[in-house]
Each structure stands twice: as structure tokens, then as C-alpha cells.
Structure prediction request, 721 residues.
Amino acid sequence: MNTTQNTQPAGLQAPRAKMQAQDVRVFYGEHQAIKGIDLELMENEVIAFIGPSGCGKSTFLRSFNRMNDTIEGCRLEGRILLDGEDIHAADMDVVMLRARVGMVFQKPNPFPKSIYDNVAYGPRIHGLARGRGDLDDRVEDSLRRAGLWDEVKDRLHAPGTGLSGGQQQRLCIARAIAVSPEVILMDEPCSALDPIATAKVEELIAELSQQYTIAIVTHSMQQAARVSDRTAYFHLGELIEVNATDKVFTHPQNALTEAYITGRFG
Amino acid sequence: MNSTMLAIILLAVTALAYQFGLLRSTRQGRTLAREQVHSRPVYHAAWLAICCGTPGLLVLLLWSALEPLLIRNWLLASWPELLGGPAETAGTILMRRLQELAGGADNATALELAAAQQLGQLQTWAALGKTALVALASAGGLIWAARRMNATFKARHQVERMVRTLLLGCSAVAVLTTLGIVLSMVSEAFNFFSFIRPSEFFFGTKWNPAFSSTGNTHGEYGLLPLLWGTLMVSLIAMLVAIPLGLMTAIYMAEYAPAWFRDMAKPVIEILAGIPTIVYGIFALMAVGPFFAAAGELLGIQVRATSALTAGVVMGLMIIPFVSSLSDDIITRVPQALRDGALGLGATRSECIRQVVLPAALPGIVGAFLLAFSRAIGETMIVVLAAGNSPQLHANPLEAISTVTVSIINQLTGDTDFAGPQSLVAFALGLTLFVITLALNVIALYVVRKYREHYE
Ligand SMILES: Nc1ncnc2c1ncn2[C@@H]1O[C@H](COP(=O)(O)OP(=O)(O)O)[C@@H](O)[C@H]1O
Ligand SMILES: [Mg+2]
Prediction:
């Protein structure tokens, strides 16, 4: 495989790998969607996954918190480590894993509950809050960090589904960070949003990256260029190239990557 | 010639007309450029066939409907001396007698024989006239259509219009029949209320219809004991069906692997297809005695035929109904919502309890209401297993009666629809109809509302 994985983003000193994928292969029944990928998610970086649709970006992303377990007939080979521990190990509980590795989906999917209950959902199932006041604080804090507090503080008990698309997506981000994850996976979080809402979410990603490790799938190369430190290019289930974002966009090492970012296919 | 023969011949002629149209329009179109020909030959042929068959068929139907009436009136008018009593019934008897005689029977008076002979003659003429008229109508239609037909004729539009008319006609039959049923129920119910005051019926607490032979009182027609019985049995049924049906639905929609679902769902749906009388027998032979025996063990007086028996078996009957409706609704909850909850670290059952079910709740409630209306209208199980005792009491271990059972009771045996004893069936039926209609309307509204929400 012709993976290029050498250059670290400049300015970071001795970055530590938060998650490591080692020779990951994913199958849907007989069909192999991921064909043996090695990739590390560095602490506090934003890494963008790009590539033509159907190349396996979502599948690979969902492997990091075992969301593929929920799909009948989906099977993973290889290893994925979180802080050096195998996430498929017998003593790794998937509930705990997903509390540490959160996820934001393509379509905003607030629960049919109030805004407050949406954000409080995670803390409640994980028993993170001690008492009502603590929970209130956590909800407020999460909403603030998602940049949504000012817009919703007067209607916390209105249904979450009543918000606009962009607000719903930020609500979903607030919901994800309310359980204090270490890694946040985002699968095309802006593809259902208008440009203004997109800008807000991108701003938010930049802020969150100071605290979390973020992997984001995007079909917009501009977005990858704006928000990410590193970019990984996927093609037909293989990782073709991963490098500092500006390098990938200015000097792609691989002809396939170049063809994709210059818009020759996609 | 009898009507069946005529209809068959008409069909054959129509088929010939179709072939003729096909040939003729193909020939007509041959000399023309493609864009000058409006419709393809099949449309011309279909049009020709319709124009030929329809008038003949209509004449045939009309004639067949009117013929017996006309012949009867004619005969009764010509032989008034044969009529022994009032025209209504004696006429019918006489006609039957004459038919027999015309078919060749003996021991008749000369007068009767003459009348029978006339009947035979009339029938012969009628058959001739019918054949001639049908032939005329068909031929007329065919000729009219054939003359209009040429390459530029827009046969396709005509055929489409006729198809639409036909479909409209068919749906009108369904709607009008329903309307007719409701109207006749309403009018008979009004008839009933001329004997019994509505307040006595709707708020009466005693159900004791006396048959006319027992005296000149009509008895008591209080709806409440029956309504209460219906309600009690249905509620017991729902108590059985809701938990079992809902759990089944959740398992099927959320847990069962595909192969199991593919196998089990048809089986569950077969349960829904078992005739209710079979459930009734099951209740009577197995469940009732079982409850009675169990009660005896516990030292409780339990009747074999009771609200409990009927309710439990009815609940079993409704399970597939509840489960397949709820299953549909649960499956319809977007995967994105499940992903959201699972992605936050919810377990499967937390996800279902806290996210999927609340999202599906309106639809599920709708499903429950539909099942409830089904239970209310259910008859055979309660006839066999509820014990038929129209009393106002709250003990499910005792016998009870329901609206449906009482309808059956009032209509079996000799009925003449002149007194409240049988007319009350219409009032009961109407009440039942209104209740189930209301439940269905609410349920459908709720379900629709829910679907809009997610699609
Ligand atoms: N649930 C599924 N069942 C079967 N095949 C799937 C499923 N999801 C994705 N795939 C297949 O896996 C491949 C990768 O899909 P995906 O990861 O969604 O690509 P991307 O996100 O890059 O568009 C595709 O060929 C797709 O058809
Ligand atoms: Mg995708």
C-alpha cells in the first residue's frame, strides 16, 4: 500500500497518539469496505477524512467507537487502540467506550425530548451528575461550549426538534460533549446545513479542538482545509495519503489525491 | 334464449368487434404518416369493443331487472279472479303456482291453466324481445363507433375516459353500499326509538327484553349493562394484548436477527387469520375450564364462561394485530435516532425505552386504539365464552354479556322487525358502529400525524 504518513504538523511538540488503527479491515457480509488501514489520531488534533463517496470514510470513522457493531452483518478485523488499550478487548465496555469517544452524525438527530433533556441524556445514562444542580451546570456548560446557550437559554424545556437545522446540529454537539468525551467523531456534520450554520459549526470545531481529539468526515475540501490539522485521503476502502492539511492540498504526494482535490473525480 | 346464453354471445360479439377494430384501424393507418395517426390500433379496437358491448349489456341488465315485474303486473291485472287475497302475498303465491303449471304440472283448474299458458307465452315473447333489443343496441353501438372511427380519431382519450368512468363506478358502489347500510341502520334505529325512549335506552341500567308472547310490555332495554360488558371484556383483552403485543413488536423490530424475523412474522400474521369462532371454541373448551379449575384450587369462585375467559382469549386474538402495527411503527423510527442514543453510550434497552418508544408513542397509541375498536366489535368469542348474563357488575370472574352478543340474541329465532325486540339490534349496531368509527378516526389521525412527523 502506498500510504504516506511521515510529516507531523509543524509547531506541535512530541504529539501523542490518542487512537491508533492497526491494519483495520471492515466487512459488510462478503463485501470488504475497508481494506487494511493504519492511522493514528493525535491528541488534540483535528483530522479530516476526505474521498469520493462510498470509499469507506463513514465506515472507518464508525469503527473508532464501535458504532458498526449495531449494523447486522458488519465485522471488523485488525486492532483499534484508545490510549494504548484495544477497544475490542474483553474488558473494554462499549458503553464506556462510547462515553469516551463521542459521535456527531450527518443529519442532526435530536431526540424527541426537550433541549435540556437532550443534553442531559448522556450524563443521566452514565450517572455523571450529582444532583439536579450539578446536572443543570453540566447542561449549561455544554450548551455554552456548543455556542448555543444564548439562543436557547429561555426555552430549555421546548422540544429539541423545534430548533433550526444548524441549531439542532449544535445541540447534538452539545449532547456529545456533555459526557466529557476525549475523542469526537463527526460524520459530515455540516452536509445538511446552510452556509451560515456551517460557519458556526466550523468555528465551534476550531474551539473544541483545544480540548478534544476530533476526526471529521467531510465532502467539502474547503471545509477540510479550514478546520483540520491533518487530512487523510481515502479511495475504495484504502487510505491513500495522510499528511498536514496544507501539504495535502498544495503538494499531494499521490496522483489519486491530486486528481480528487483538483476535482477530476469525486 | 336465456340471459346467460345472451351474455355469452354478447361477450363473443364484443371480442369480434375488438378484432375487427384492430384490423380496420391497422389498415386505415397504413396509408398515413406516423404523426397523423393519433392512437395505436389497440385503442381503436378497445373503443369499438366498449361501444359494442356496453349498450348491449346495459339493455340486458335493465330488461332482466324489469321483466319479472312487468309480467307479474300484466298477469295479475288480466286474471283478477284468480287472486285469493291481498295483492302483495297472494300475488306472489299465484305467480309461483303459475310458474309450476307453465313448467308442466297437473291438477289445475281451467282458469289456472289458461293463465299459465299466458305466462308461458309472455315469457317467450319477452325472451324474443330481449334478444332483439340487445342485438339492436349492440349493433347500433358498433355501427355508430365504426363510423366515427378513422385514423385521426382520438380513441386513446376516449378509452382512458371510459376506464376512469368504470373505476369511478366501482368505487361508487363501495361508498354507496356503506352509506346505504348506515342509512338503513339509522332509519331502523329511529323505528326502535318510537317504541322505547332514547333516554331509556342509553341510560337504562336493566337489560331484559321480553318477547311479545309474554304479554304486552316490551321489556327493558337499558344499554349500560351491555356497554359495560363490552368495555370490561375489551379492557381485559387490551391488558393481555398490549404488553405481549408490544414486547413482541419490540423484539421483532429491534432484536430479532433478519432470518428469525422473516420466519416469525408470517407465523404471527397467520394468528391474525384464524377465524374468531376457532378462538371462541378454544375459550369455551380449554381456557374457561382451566380458569375454573385454577379458581377452585385457590378457593375462588370462577365461572368457566366469564368476562375473564372471553377477555383473555380475545387478547390473544388481538396480539398479532397490536404487534404487527407497532412493529411497523417502531421500524419507522429513524435509524439516526437510535444511532444518536447508542453513540452516546446508551445500551440497547435504554435506547429503546428512552428514545425509540417515546418517538414511536403516538403511533403506538394509534395502534392500541385500532386494536381496541377491533375488540369492541368482536363477537364470536364473547358469544361462546362470556356467559351471556347482562348484569351491571364489576367482577370479571362472573358471566357478562356484550353489545354484540345481545344483537345476536335479539336476531336469532323468529323475528319480524315489527317490535322493539328485534329492532333494538339496529340501535345496538348503530351504537357500536359510532363507537368503533370514532376510535378508528382518532387512531388513524394519530398515526397519520406521527407519519408526517418522520417522513
Ligand atoms: N450498512 C451497510 N451495509 C452494507 N454495505 C454498506 C453499509 N454501509 C456502507 N456500506 C458499503 O460500504 C462502502 C463504504 O461505505 P461508506 O463508509 O458509507 O462510504 P462513505 O462514507 O465514504 O461514503 C460502500 O461500498 C457501501 O456500499
Ligand atoms: Mg458517509
About this structure: The first strand of chain A starts at residue 17 and ends at 28. Chain A touches chain B through 27 residues (CB under 8 Å). The domain at 17-261 of chain A is CATH 3.40.50.300 (Rossmann fold). The CA atoms of residues 225 and 245 of chain A lie 6 Å apart.
